[in-house]
Design goal:
By secondary structure, chain A is of the alpha/beta class. Chain A has helices at 10-16, 91-98, 121-129, 148-163, 167-180, 185-188, 198-210, 228-245, 256-263, 282-287, 292-299, 341-345, and strands at residues 44-54, 64-75, 80-84, 106-111, 114-115, 131-134, 216-220, 248-253, 267-272, 275-281, 308-309, 351-352, 359-360, 373-374. Chain A is built from twelve helices and 14 strands. In chain A, helix 7 packs parallel to helix 8 (228-245) and helix 8 (228-245) packs parallel to helix 9. In chain A, 55% of the residues are buried. In chain B, strand 1 and strand 2 (33-45) form a beta hairpin. Chain B has helices at residues 2-9, 61-67, 96-102, 124-134, 140-153, 158-162, 171-183, 201-218, 229-235, 253-258, 263-270, 307-312, 315-319, 338-351, and strands at residues 19-30, 33-45, 50-54, 76-85, 89-90, 107-110, 189-193, 221-226, 238-243, 246-252, 325-326, 334-335. By secondary structure, chain C is an all-alpha fold. Classes of the chains: A alpha/beta, B alpha/beta, C mainly alpha. Chains in contact: A-B, A-C, B-C. Bound molecules: adenosine-5'-triphosphate (ATP) (2 copies), iron/sulfur cluster and magnesium ion (2 copies). Residues 61-62, 112, 193 of chain B line the site of one magnesium ion.
Chain lengths: 378, 352, 302
Amino acid sequence: MIHKKRSLDGATRESLDRATNGTGTDGTGTDGTGTDGTGTAGAIEARGIVKSFKARGDVLAGRTVRALRGVDFRIPPGGAASFIGESGCGKTTLGRILAGVESFDSGELVLGGVPLAGLAPRKRAPHFRRVQLIHQDPYSALNPTRTVESILRDPLALRAKQTGQSRAWIDGRAREVLDLVGLDPGYVLPRFPHQLSGGMRQRVVIARALTVDPAALVADEAVSMIDVSLRLGVLNLLRELRSTLGVSVLFITHDVATARYIGADGELYVIYRGEIVEHGPTETVLADPVHPYTQCLLSAIPVLHGVEQPGADRLAPTEPLDESQPEDGCLFAARCPFATDRCRTEHPELGHLGGTAHEHACFYPQRRSVVATPLADT
Amino acid sequence: MTAATQATTSTAAAAPPAVTIRDLTIVYRTPAGELPAVSGVDLDLPPGTITGLVGESGSGKSTLALSLLGAVQRPGRIAAGSIHVDGLGNLVELSAKSLQEARGGEIGYVFQAAQNSLNPLKTVGKQLLDLGRSHGVRDRTALVRSAKELLAGMGLDAARVLDSYQHELSGGMRQRVGIMFALVLNAHVLVLDEPTTALDMISQANVLKIVRAVHTERGLTTLLVTHDIGVVAEVAERIAVMYGGVVVEQGETADVLRAPKHPYARALINAIPRVSGDLSAARPLPGRPPTLGTIPTRGCVFRERCAVYAERQLPACVAEQPPLAPVADGSGRLVACHAVAVEDQQATGETA
Amino acid sequence: MVTAVEIPTGNTPALTPARRGFWRNLWRVLRRKPTRVAGAVIVALFVVMGVVGPFLYPANLPTDPGNAYAGPSGSHLLGTDFQGTDVLALLVTGSRYVLVAAVIAAACTVVVGTGIGLYAGYRRGGPDSVLMRITDFIITIPGLPLLLVLSTLWKYSNPLTMGLVLGVTGWGSVARAVRSQTLSLRERGFIEAARGLGLSTAHVVRKELLPNVAPYVAMNLLISVTVYIYLEVGLFFLGVLPFNENNWGVMISQAVQNGVTQTGQGLAYLLSPLVAILLLTLGIVLLVDAMDEVFNPRLRED
Ligand SMILES: Nc1ncnc2c1ncn2[C@@H]1O[C@H](COP(=O)(O)OP(=O)(O)OP(=O)(O)O)[C@@H](O)[C@H]1O
Ligand SMILES: Nc1ncnc2c1ncn2[C@@H]1O[C@H](COP(=O)(O)OP(=O)(O)OP(=O)(O)O)[C@@H](O)[C@H]1O
Ligand code: SF4
Ligand SMILES: [Mg+2]
Ligand SMILES: [Mg+2]
């Protein structure tokens, strides 16, 4: 398993106050395949996270929705983990739990190497603060009545108070974080959020998150509401923060291509109805998915005809998720084109594919190439 | 149905376009005066094809699409140009009454955010009957029957859906109900505004499959508006790229994707991350998309972000908006770029 | 450090100085519509009247029984009352009580209502239920009878007591409305972000929530002023409150008691306070229209 027992030492305490200017963790920490036990200092781990909600809405009212059914993952410092899955699979819930804005029923969280289980709620707050959430909608994530300067000032002032820094430090740091996210402080500071483009707003949101020297950013659909031409800039920023500041990125999205762009060197987790059904190095899972759900998901990605050719084994679209489908056996059985009787009665557990880092939860794993590949002549 | 299939397979050049838009300008009244959201657009929708209209937020896609319904709302108005729809004539000159009949009748429209545009207080079936009444449909049984056929064709339990309220349907189901409403009165022209934007990949793939299927089955002429080039690439034969209220490139989808000519089209296509291949091929586009008030009024709308202009500084780019003109290679591609025109001239000059 | 610095290109809107003072914002927004300027002028006139007016006249206004119920004339612009006192003088000296009490009441309403609404909406859960029970109780207290009962204890000779009593019984609906706004704001990303950054509850309420409910609070403040003026004037008019000082309500009450409505004599005497109230209401209504834009930087532009 990827989750080995690790010793938690003084290094983790230090990491809380790690300087941000890029020297804390060197750029090489980004290879993050997560299969070995090295570089545990700032790692983020989740073990068996379970979360249920009382369902809302009229259709399922009164029932419990099992949003997460025991999720395990690990992100090394500066590493990337992408979570993909269709709507309602629990991706957002997972991100919110990690950032401490949502509670969970059971399981264990280790943030920056510190297990939270033994800590009193008050003591957990500083650890949760090191995981910052980047919201999907950069407009609603910024207070419309305040200028960027005042938005950045508050968290910095709080920090200055704690560490006894001066006003000048606050001003300097505000400019610094804006520089880090590629914005011109002189232009941005006096402006209100609505005076900035979507991409700039999202950068301000990221800059604000950087004011607390986070160990990790949870980016939940962080570019889906930004203009197409500006998306890549924000994605590049997240990539660079990984290598320059050693910030880990947990990237949640429907859009597999952006997940790949952020974390081609990281891990990809495919989540279905609150369960991880496939996991492995991003490029491996995309090129050789073995779980039928992953294959359905990847088959649904539009093919850029003219530049790409569809994967040889591309599957036809399945019907969308229906929460009322049976929960015994494989959760995907009702929609799976390859399901057998065994699938409908027995629950497949996550296990490794022939001793590799590639994990899946399917009785009949079968490599299928479903994603589009570039046409030879381009 | 054979006619329809023929129409789909025949190329754009063969049949006269079902919809011809010429020199269309639509302005919105703002505190800063009347500003054009669509300026001098030419667009043809060949019969039996799906045309994808892509562009970023605020580029004027919805405004252009709404004009096909004669439904540009105040403070907007059509300031110039014509919209010819086969069998209806010039929409700009039609009376309000004939326009109202055409809407939902000849021309089916699925609104942006159709997921939320159903009346939450009425069942789908009741809304269907309302639609029939407003269009003077006598035979209500036939109306319900064709609605059921459409819904069943899209893989829904028709009886249940007609009995449902909006909140009882998922996003993908609502989108299909929207398509049913657009087609139930036998529209020939279908306009879909961002039909998959709020949906996840699997629902999106389902909706696109359905769009493709009804389009072929009914021999429609379809305009699909989206900001997602992938969606267009998946289902549309033709693509039109909009920027700042102007169509900057138009042609066969595969051609345009393979070799975009307009600098904006090229930059936009290059800015999309891919699921396979070389990751570093993706390049960000500098600057930001213009809003109504910041679209340059003189010269090319894209000039400020244009890499070609940055390099070659053509005076024409500053002087006037280039017209959408055929490219010399004979591919039927239309491009609005001075640099492309100059290259073409040089190329033809050399060969001559 | 980052390669692609997002440099704004030439098509970015010219920078409108973002951190302008509140008053300059107010002025800019008012100037945008003549009706707003008119509203502001009217309100300003009344404020001046309430503050300065009483000093312009002697403490005891002269009476002239020989010239009672006179119509408007050069020496008495609005005519005279049943004792021959100048109506304009009565109107001006009587404004202070009414206005001060209404402003105090409105301020009370808004401060208490907003405070409770914000806190209940932000904390939710237990504190919310308790506070909302209290709010419901306040809302269900019938205001007028309570004031009548209290009038047996208090004489309301002082606008301060009057204002406090009105305010303390009137904040319920504001609290409810602010709470529901807070509940919806709470779901917005920036509130969650502030908490995620470790900012205190006081900070979140004061600096994140309050500015966003401010337009609403300001509108309530203005509208409550008119509501309370009507309420006060109504109370005095009904004659249920004893009075030992002049104010608009007293004027109307006296005019009616002295038979102006029957004889038609001294109509200006009856109408003056009524028109004053209507005019002030108009001024406030015209001003309310500007509040959204004053507090919302997005609307403030273009
Ligand atoms: N606060 C809540 N109360 C009740 N149910 C909830 C709540 N939050 C989430 N859920 C339910 O939990 C499940 C997982 O939701 P979640 O938002 O995590 O999904 P997601 O994968 O982020 O979906 P999407 O891609 O649509 O954002 C869904 O069935 C959702 O309805
Ligand atoms: N009612 C209106 N009043 C004033 N301006 C408007 C109005 N509707 C649209 N606009 C402006 O017209 C321009 C084009 O808008 P339109 O909705 O057509 O864009 P779009 O390409 O559909 O964008 P999106 O992808 O966001 O839907 C935008 O700049 C928009 O701000
Ligand atoms: S276990 Fe069976 S049902 Fe589940 S995904 Fe694999 S093949 Fe399909
Ligand atoms: Mg989500
Ligand atoms: Mg639109």
